[in-house]
Amino acid sequence: MTGKVRLAYGVAGVALLLALWQLLVLLRGAGEALFPSPLGVARGIAELVDNGILWKHLKVSLGRFIVGYLSACVIAVALGLALGRVQPLWALLDPVIQLLRPVSPIAWAPFIVLWFGIGDAPAIVIIFIAAFFPVLLSTVAGVRSVSPIYLKVAQNMELSRAQLTRRIILPAAFPTIAGGLHLAIGTSWIFLVSGEMVGAQSGLGFLIIDSRNTLRMDLVMAGIVLIGSCGLLLDRAVRWFEYWVETHWGSGERR
Known about the structure:
10 helices; single chain; MetI-like fold
């Protein structure tokens, strides 16, 4: 499927969603104050833009997300490359990781606020926790799935440990790692908004809570739309990065 065809399908899907949204508004008949229409939400977004509030909250949320997500990915990939090669160490740590992984990052929020205070740090830590485990587990799985033939060839070529990781293991494991990157970007973005609802005084999550307290349901829905739109763009950014890396290693295909 070509890029233009996919774009046409995407536009049609968004148009269908807007039509269903408007139909639901008409069927409920609750009024704009309780269930805003797409046009009402568009006016709310325009109001946020005019007041300069939108860019303020969006910039804060994206800044927190980038710091938390990228730091989690770098540390998780580096740790996963090491743990995937040392099986006894992974066997020792795997039960601990599987014990901590299901715990929601929000469950740690009381301790995070106590340890890091109020501000950007708690949200960044929550994002880090949400992104860390999917990337770590996918990296370990990718390393452990590398064909032994590749390792034999590397041994015959007398590659150093760093060369083995850079030239053989990382390219072979990257498709699996990319799956973890996709999963992590969704979960960490969700928990960013949750973290901002708990203890932050800015960001898209705070915008939703503040708008709810003032009974501005149009701005609440505007925040929801912005969160979804940013999540879509971030997912596309990761897909582009994945394509670029695979093309750089000579195995990329546009999907």
